Amino acid sequence: MFVWSFGVGLFAVLLAATLVSFAAAGLLLAALLGVLAVLHLVLPISALGPLAVRTPWVDAATCAVLAVGLAVLAVVAPGGLRS
């Protein structure tokens, strides 16, 4: 169930990239990674299925770092939200 909802989120990112802008899609993907980081900490590993690769803390930290980096890039990149 959880993997399907993550796939729906990725589909929403693709739609945002197509219909709105790449910056908005980048921020949406960063938000999705942030939610995934929190879910890695609160859900049991069995609920995460194939999205749980390492220990929950390592997966959550990795997702959080990627989310922050992607959000920063979406804002400061040429053609991003600042233009």
Describe the secondary-structure layout.
Elements lengths: L1 H18 L2 H21 L2 H4 L7 H21 L7
Helix pairs in contact: 1-2, 2-4
Describe this structure in words.
By secondary structure, the protein is mainly α. The chain has one domain. It is built from four helices and no strands. The longest helix has 21 residues, at 22-42. The N and C termini lie far apart (39 Å). The model has no long low-confidence stretch (mean pLDDT 85). It comes from Quadrisphaera granulorum. The chain crosses the membrane at residues 33-53, 60-81. InterPro entries: DUF3017. It holds the Pfam family DUF3017. Keywords: Membrane, Transmembrane, Transmembrane helix.
In short:
This protein has 83 residues and is an all-alpha fold. It has helices at residues 2-19, 22-42, 45-48, 56-76.
Beta-sheet strand percentage?
under 5%
Overall number of domains: 1
Low-pLDDT stretches = none
Order of helices and strands: HHHH
Overall body shape: flat
Report the radius of gyration as a whole number of Å.
Answer: 14 Å
Separation of termini? Answer: 39 Å
Provide the residue-averaged pLDDT: 85
Relevant terms:
single chain; 83 residues; mainly alpha; 4 helices; flat; transmembrane; membrane
